[in-house]
Amino acid sequence: MLLIFEKSRRDSNKMNIPPADVDPVDITQTIGEEYLRAGELPLPDVNEVEAVRHYTALSKRAYGVDDGFYPLGSCTMKYNPKIDEWTARLPGLAGLHPYQPVETVQGALQIMHETGQWLCEITGMDEFTLQPAAGAHGEMTGVMMIKAYHRKRGDEGRNTMLVPDSAHGTNPATANVVGYKVVEVKSDERGLVDLEDLKSKLGPHVAGLMLTNPNTLGLFEENILEISRLVHESGGLLYYDGANLNAIMGIARPGDMGFDVVHVNLHKTFGTPHGGGGPGSGPVGVKKHLAEFLPVPRVVQRGEQYLLDYDYPDSIGKVKEFYGNFGVIVKAYTYMRALGGEGLKEASRHAVLNANYVKHHLRDEYHIPFDRLCKHEFVATARHQMDASKVSALDVAKSLLDYGYHPPTIYFPLIVREALMIEPPETESRERLDDFIAVMKEIARAARENPEQVKSAPHHTVVRRLDEVKAARTPLVRWEETENA
Ligand SMILES: Cc1ncc(COP(=O)(O)O)c(C=O)c1O
């Protein structure tokens, strides 16, 4: 397919723009001369119908939750009910300006306030901020609050954050960005935090432990109460990476497990699909002893009025312009209101049921390293296929494309060799899951009987197998006029 720049023909765009009826502005008053464009703006010259066709054709090449099953473990490509989109686009919400006086945006503030209250109820925390724009951003906000907490108590020697070896990469990255030394805690043979290893790493230098529950293997940390006791007894705090909350919402609460800070991925648990370049939202909840450090402004209710309150001297400050990604918050609010408490519980139960159903039916063909009741996702591997015919997890993933399925996450968590991390969201029907299972079995059969077919997949996609190392190391994502003209 040609790039739109390659379709460009001088003067094809006959659009008439009426002459400006305002005086020109001298832009150099606000932007330095050095930032002004020197030459002509190299926009492609195509007429309207060709531009529409170009982008329509491109959109048909994309794959999303509205196209098919998307079992991307840890990413939770959840179906976003269309009513969520509808409310987020209501002109009274989508058309608001963040600089509007608060008395004109009372409804929006009410939505934010109630979303925070619902999240408190679901997670068992006392207060929430909706500012962070993603899970990783929520982690940063939460860990900054942990730091502020220790600092305020004069406990400045705590320079280390503990992170399990199964953790999502954003956990150690966050701790590092906030200035902590990261120390890894090992998993035991059951895929859970190794208590002995944890004990040996705790001490007066430890600020806290970042934990995902269920963890990235889809397993519930059964010793969470003991872990919480150990961390708190040594003076540390417990951080909950709530990216996997969709496995337990309405059933178990991180606040009751002893967590002091949690972040929630609204774009995973509450409707909006993860990824896809769209905005996310990673609200952070805290227990009372950390509330004074929450970012400002906080949305508060005084009588009948909702206000933006900046008066928190120990706040870590602002972590995002304005008040968070409001559109995603509206979608999450709609999702929660539409499902209600029972509905949210049901969503978690279905996510867990679907994951266990698929795991059960794949265990004869694929190696399942931790084969017991899982939560919303599980890890299978291509180890049998690799050992028998050198077919890798990547080959299985590429083969799925030929059947019209998006592959699961591969090679994560890092502690599992040839990992295929499968998360079938709660909205998938039994028929869809059965079809996916049949396709996975068919790929396993092909790996046995005709490994070359799997190793050279995909065969029926628009582009075949790409040089992924080159794409990652030397990405060429800009069109250069001189090269292509
Ligand atoms: C367990 C876990 N933690 C943290 C994150 C980070 O979330 P985000 O991608 O919104 O930054 C993810 C993302 O998928 C995750 O799966």
Write the layout of secondary structure elements.
Blueprint: H1 4-7, H2 48-61, H3 82-88, H4 91-94, H5 106-123, E1 127-129, H6 135-152, E2 160-164, H7 170-177, E3 181-185, H8 195-201, E4 206-212, H9 224-233, E5 237-242, H10 254-257, E6 261-264, H11 266-269, E7 284-286, E8 298-302, E9 305-309, H12 326-362, E10 378-381, H13 383-389, H14 393-402, E11 409-410, E12 419-422, H15 430-449, H16 451-455, H17 468-473, H18 481-484
Parallel strand pairs: 2-3, 2-4, 4-5, 5-6
Antiparallel strand pairs: 1-7, 6-7, 8-9, 10-12, 11-12
Helix pairs in contact: 3-12, 5-12, 6-7, 12-15
Bound molecules: pyridoxal-5'-phosphate (PLP).
Counting DSSP E segments of at least 2 residues, the number of strands comes to: 12
Order of helices and strands: HHHHHEHEHEHEHEHEHEEEHEHHEEHHHH
CATH homologous group name of the domain at 83-338: Type I PLP-dependent aspartate aminotransferase-like (Major domain)
General form: globular
Short description:
The longest helix has 37 residues. The strands form 3 sheets. The chain has a 7-stranded mixed β-sheet, with helices on both faces.
Keywords:
about 475 residues, alpha/beta, Aspartate Aminotransferase, domain 2, 18 helices
